[in-house]
Write a structure and sequence with these properties.
By secondary structure, the chain is an all-alpha fold. It has 4 helices and no strands.
Length: about 60
């Protein structure tokens, strides 16, 4: 997830972003650290709060098995 990079570009703290998005701080922290993957509904909330399209939060690395 690219949440942290986009959050930093907007000069928002985690607390400010969770207030705008309506998420818990622990959830956002887990998403930024890559410990959890957000539900589609949370991706939409974060994208709206960051004023980006949800696709902007996608991890663009190609994974192969």
């Amino acid at each position: 997830m690219r949440i942290r990079k986009l959050r930093d570009r907007r000069h928002l703290t985690q607390k400010e972003l969770v207030e705008k998005a309506g998420l818990s701080e622990s959830a956002l922290r887990s998403y930024e650290l890559g410990n959890r993957h957000p539900k589609d509904s949370h991706i939409k909330l974060v994208a709206q709060a960051l004023e980006v399209r949800p696709e902007a939060l996608a991890d663009r690395r190609i994974r192969t098995s």
